[in-house]
Design a protein that fits this description.
mainly alpha
């Protein structure tokens, strides 16, 4: 968890150390009832249980240590889809429910805490860069910004935000995987 936080914070400020504290405070704020650290801890804990489930499956199936480690490495991004977990379940072992693994989260979008954690850190880094550009644009006299779509993927949230804004708190990203970007507008 500490390494994930450190890398995320480092990438969120990268070359603009002058606003580091403001940016870190921004990306670690409470959002939808949880802070960055609370979400990261939750996903890390889930990932730990997912790997624990793979280990339990390997033990139940009498796999060698090397074969078990190899299968865990191969399915690290989707541990619950590990071939040995699936085989153990098909043999009647209720290892997922016994270990207490949550099988789906993120509004059902993923069955992998690895994906949820990757999305969380990517989003935090993007937020950090947008906060940097906001601060930089304000310092240079920008009066607002123009939001443009960065992808053609259908999204009502992004469509509603395209256009000129003077509210600096409405900068993208608007959601995970958001590719929208803002262009500062200066007074003429």
């Amino acid at each position: 968890l500490e390494i994930i936080e450190d890398y995320t914070y480092t990438l969120a400020v990268a070359t603009h150390e002058d606003n580091k504290d403001v940016i870190i405070t921004y990306i670690t704020r409470e959002s939808y009832g949880k802070t960055f650290t609370q979400r990261a801890r939750e996903y890390v804990d889930r990932f730990s249980k997912e790997v624990e489930t793979a280990i339990a499956a390997g033990l139940l199936l009498n796999l060698s240590k090397d074969k078990l480690l190899s299968s865990i490495r191969q399915s690290v991004k989707t541990p619950l889809l590990n071939e040995h977990i699936q085989r153990a379940i098909s043999k009647g072992y209720s290892i997922i429910s016994r270990i207490g693994v949550q099988e789906s989260f993120g509004v059902g979008r993923t069955v992998s805490s690895w994906t949820a954690l990757s999305d969380l850190t990517e989003y935090a880094v993007a937020e950090g860069w947008m906060k940097h550009w906001e601060l930089q644009a304000k310092a240079c006299g920008a009066v607002g910004f123009f939001v443009m779509r960065g992808s053609s993927y259908p999204c009502n949230i992004c469509d509603d935000e395209v256009g000129f804004h003077v509210e600096w708190d409405k900068l993208p990203p608007y959601h995970g995987h958001c590719k929208c970007f803002a262009v500062p507008v200066s007074a003429i």
